[in-house]
Amino acid sequence: MAINPGTEQTPPRPPKPAGFVSPRTVALYGILAALTTAITCASYTPFSPTKGYFNLGESMVFFSALVFGWRAGAICGGIGSAAADILLGWGMFAPLTLVAKGAEGLIAGTIGRMKGGWAMSATIALLAGLLVAMGLSYLTGAEAYGMDELLFLIMVFLAVSATLLLVMYLLGEKVHKATPIVLGIAIGGTVMVITYFLGEWLVLDVGLGKALLEVPINVLQVTLGGTIGALLSYYVKKSYPRITRM
Amino acid sequence: MAGFIDLYTEGDTFLHRMDPRVKIASVLLLSALGLMLSNLYSLLILMGFIFLLLFLTRASLGKTSLALKALLRVMMLIVALWPIFDPSGTPVIASLGPVTITEPAIWRGVTSAVRVGCLATVWYILMLTTSQRDMVRALVKLGLRFDFGLALSISLRFLPTFVLTIESIKDAQRARGLELDRGGILKRARNYVAVLVPTIVSALRTAETLSLALQSRAYGARADRTYLRDLSMRRSDAVAIAAVVTILVVPAVMKYMLGYEL
Predict the structure, then answer these.
(1) Co-location of B81 and B118 in the same domain
(2) Are B154 and B210 in contact, with CB atoms under 8 Å apart?
(3) pTM of the model
(4) B71 is in which domain, residue-wise?
(5) Is B150 part of the contact surface with chain A (CB cutoff 8 Å)?
(6) Which residues of A touch B201 (CB under 8 A)?
């Protein structure tokens, strides 16, 4: 009697029911969060006299966000950094860290992975021109230069925007690739610093002085972490090209 | 492993045996209480209660003092900085240029420092008495999706491994002449890239192997998964959570409905 295996077997079970994320994602997110925590702990430098803890964990948040997208940035950055807070003995900052670093990863991932091009660069140049013009006229007032208000605004706007566009043009095509990354890191970092400041001041109520003391440290941390995160995303992609398929 | 400590200590006190869900809820409730109270004396009572619990964890003195030393520094900093930014109230003690230091501001600083002390210490109790495994289990039981719980377990499992990886890569790069402890903070941070790139690549390789391992063990094959160890609330857990809720509700009623200054 011929055995026909095809007819008697039960139909194979679907490999993955809906509702669970794929094993690849689970492994990747777990590992990225662990890396964030490990790097935070390994580069932990107590920064007396403030709560001072300066670290390079930020770079991993930006790395995850820039390479794997906003979801990875938000989840791994938020959970990894909050876990580091808890493990290093700052549990009360953990909820705040979860929100601050999660938002940072989310924003850096969203903006940092946009396709930069002339349109984006031009928008930024125009916005910067507008901001500088409005800021200058607010701070000094157009009368200081003996000019009409509208004329002053337009002149400053045109000067700043044109200079920025010229600089971008001279720097060449590379600048369009770098623009979204720099912008994402800058905006994400700003949101993080502001969240920490407001959270410490209003929610945890540690006092305005302590909250203000943290700001320059956080700014330094974002600057360093952002630089290193961007460098890492470039170097790791280069030395491990399979990363784009993960 | 600078600064890295796992606070959990094995033990058999009632705090160790308590359901981790109850412990997490209690920490949140006591934190809420700490944020609600604004009177120095009631905060001191709360702090006394929290320290009593901390004493009952029977944790080793070394770990506790390590944690508390850092906390004490922050509290002192708050007391020192608060009056400088808060010039309200009388009597004025000292005045120097734009800075005015008043007596009520100092007391407000002390109050805030005590509150921060309460909020931090309550977390130490949770960390000292709950293993990471129990913590994840409790979070999954409280409604965290199972796959995220698994990712969290994975990250806690690999954390010490990666800390060791970083250390050994640091040593390897130092042997090749990389200087991590010299130079300004910018140069030092820049040099860290040489440590981080190999670390990340090795971690990503681990992630790939791990995803194969998960697949080969039929991860996610069934949605109605079962657990080897399950959590169950006992009567003592119910009593504990009732007690903590009472501790929160009684002062809340006294403060917001009866108008006491708490």
Answers:
(1) yes
(2) yes
(3) 0.80
(4) 7-130+232-257
(5) yes
(6) 236, 239-240
